Amino acid sequence: MGKLNDIELLKNIPSEITMLFTKELANYLVIYDGKIVFTKLEKNLKKLTISNIKEATISNNKLFEQYPALTDLKSVNNGLFIEAPRNYSEDSTLHIFYVQEDKDLDINTLIILNQNAEFNYFEYLYNKSQTHINFVSNSIVKENARLKYVGISNFNEKANACVTRNSYISRYGKSLYSIAEINDANIESNTNIFLNDKYASATSKVVAITSNNQKAKFRQLLEHNSPDTEGFIENYGVANNQSSLMFEGVGKINKNMKRSVARQQNKGIVLGEFARLDANPLLLIDEYDVEAAHGAAIGKIDEEQLYYLMSRGLTLKNAERLIISGFLSPVIEMLTTEKLIENFVSIVERKTL
């Protein structure tokens, strides 16, 4: 285990990442080019099981019998395994920084929450050099467990990225996924949540900003595989310059999944004259006794709001930034330290100039 001032362990980590390691940041791991190189955990988080994913899956064959979709993990070498024991409950957040510099970023993460566990997870994805990114995470949320999953991707324009996040939720389990996509890469991101038992619920929230000639597509699937389940999709987007941003949300209620609820909303701001922002909310309903709704509101910044702010002395650009900051406030609420908030705001300002 390293200390915060351990120069030997941190010397290879880009300064854009190490500047985030403040005293406020109590619990974190750094995975550099596929390997865990630094760990700082308080005593209360040491109850978690944290290891290399290959080691964990070799000793856990029953997992693949129960969740056939995870079979691909048998061939995985790089990644992280996290397991919260039964009745685990801590307010603290575990922060994971995935950093690429010399190798392609090819990472798998598996999170298991046993019965009645509550766990807060935060990931920060970052690349330094030209690379292909293939990031996959899976979470298994067992009976009455609660997962709060927060992710930020900060890729540069040298990357082509494919990001997939899956969650499998049991009876009374709950997943809250909140993802901020503020990178410069061409990216395709998929979040798939499976409500597999009664009274399971989930929210999938994405905030995305595109700029320059960037192309980004975000697809979310919430599939109801049991009656009395609830799924919510929320998307917030800003498209600038000549970029292209697409949201596709799918609420799927299968036959006999009565009394299930599927809702989604999409909100977007188009800044650039040649920018494009599309929202495709889809409901695939194969049952009558359900609740389902969707909506989308896409457009330019409200002229009256701009006029009001400028009449109070703000420049046009500062007025736009203030409105966008309010629009993206769901992300601010997710961040745990002032430095993470500053980092997010600075990237937003750069991408919305």
Task: Identify the notable features of this structure and list them briefly.
disordered N terminus, alpha/beta, 8 helices, nine-stranded mixed beta sheet, 19 strands, 2 domains, 353 residues, ten-stranded mixed beta sheet
Layout of helices and strands:
Layout: H1 7-10, H2 15-18, E1 28-32, E2 35-40, E3 49-52, H3 53-58, H4 61-66, E4 79-84, E5 89-100, E6 105-113, E7 118-127, E8 131-141, E9 146-154, E10 159-169, E11 174-181, E12 186-195, E13 201-210, E14 215-224, E15 230-239, E16 244-253, E17 261-270, E18 276-285, E19 291-299, H5 303-311, H6 316-327, H7 329-332, H8 338-351
Parallel strand pairs: 1-5, 4-6, 5-7, 6-8, 7-9, 8-10, 9-11, 10-12, 11-13, 12-14, 13-15, 14-16, 15-17, 16-18, 17-19
Antiparallel strand pairs: 1-2, 3-4
Helix pairs in contact: 5-6
Give a quick summary of the entry.
With 353 residues, the protein is of the alpha/beta class. It has helices at residues 7-10, 15-18, 53-58, 61-66, 303-311, 316-327, 329-332, 338-351, and strands spanning 28-32, 35-40, 49-52, 79-84, 89-100, 105-113, 118-127, 131-141, 146-154, 159-169, 174-181, 186-195, 201-210, 215-224, 230-239, 244-253, 261-270, 276-285, 291-299.
Largest pleated sheet: 10 strands, mixed
**What topology, given as strand order, has the largest sheet?**
2-1-5-7-9-11-13-15-17-19
Counted by DSSP, the helix tally is: 8
User: What share of residues are in beta strands?
Assistant: over 45%
In the residues, how many domains can be counted?
A: 2
Q: Helix fraction?
A: 10-25%
Record field, number of beta strands = 19
Rough outline = globular
Class by SSE composition: alpha/beta
* SSE ordering: HHEEEHHEEEEEEEEEEEEEEEEHHHH
Radius of gyration: 20 Å
What is the CA-CA span between the terminal residues?
Answer: 41 Å
Low-confidence stretches: 1-7
Average pLDDT level:
88
